[in-house]
Specification:
Blueprint lengths: L1 H28 L4 H10 L5 H10 L14 H4 L7 H10 L6 H13 L13 H36 L4 H15 L2 H12 L23 H39 L2 H8 L4 H19 L1 H12 L1 H6 L5 H11 L2 H29 L6 H5 L1
Helix pairs in contact: 1-16, 7-8, 7-10, 7-13, 8-10, 9-10, 10-12, 12-16, 13-16, 15-16
Length: 368
Amino acid sequence: MLPYILKRLVLVIPTLLGIVTINFFLVQMAPGGPMETMIARMTGEEVTAEQRALRQEDDGGSGGGGLSEDASPAEMFRGGGISPELIEELKKLYGFDKPIHERYLLMLKNFAMLDFGDSFFRDKSVIELIKEKLPVSISLGVWTTILVYLISIPLGIGKAVRHGSRFDVWSSFFVIMGSAIPVFLFAVLLIIFFAGGNYFAWFPLRGLVSDGFAGMSLWEKVLDYLWHMCLPVVSMLIGGFASLTMLTKNSFLDEINKQYVTTARAKGITEKRILYGHVFRNSMLIVISGFPAAFISMLFTGSLLIEVIFSLDGLGLMGFEAAMSRDYPVMFSTLYIFTLMGLVLGIISDITYTLVDPRISFKAAERG
């Protein structure tokens, strides 16, 4: 087991380096950049993606990321009324006075020292921003994961026990629908029908709490919080329960068809004791051991579009806004942190498999 863990830990470094490197150079190739965003704010202009693309085409389609360190003031921003001296100061401020390879190596050095820098446009460090936005994403991830497991496990067991029945067929229809409908589309439908879109105004359209939240009593705060969380959590729930339901059903069916179940029935053991005393315990091993990975998936990836649609000020919305404004420190630092967490939690999930099921062995992987 130890050689396998060490091997996985060693592979974390090249994997993380490859992901960060590819994303760094892809972002540099994209039109626009933090300097153009800042100049647009200073001059009161909004630069859209279409305008950035048109400017890049006007520059001859160089594909150098819109704003390279060798770009002239005219190439950076046309008609903005910004002096060349100020542009040079902005280039130093954002590090564009250095070649791209130097910026890349400096970023890797800072990341290795856990120095993630400050946001270009929020006047805060990246770590402060993550701490500030994390509670919102954790709320979505925790509630969604809990509800997914509470719904999917009983439903999957019921489908396995009644395999081939009318209940199994009809529930499969809803499971397939839940798997097929994109989360963002379901969120939009919920807004249209229940958040004042065209029909009912039962739930708030945006935010995690109401404006007068500070002056509410404790019970009112709890109700207000749950009221705001209802639609976002339901939106994420529809996309998360389908795969876990089928995993639970297939795992349960696999255990039901094993020889020890047939032997237990031949000995006269009741069906209830067989199902919940033996089959349930064995079939739930793979479901329970996958909990860490499922939670992280809900926390860092599943909530992105939901936070944007419902204007929830969490990590997903922060990442989206950072990408739109080309806030490079936030973009690359969060990518680095979350990728590292995902890789480490993947190893933890593998270890969890062996803890809950001693039959699993990594000897073959160790030899490889």
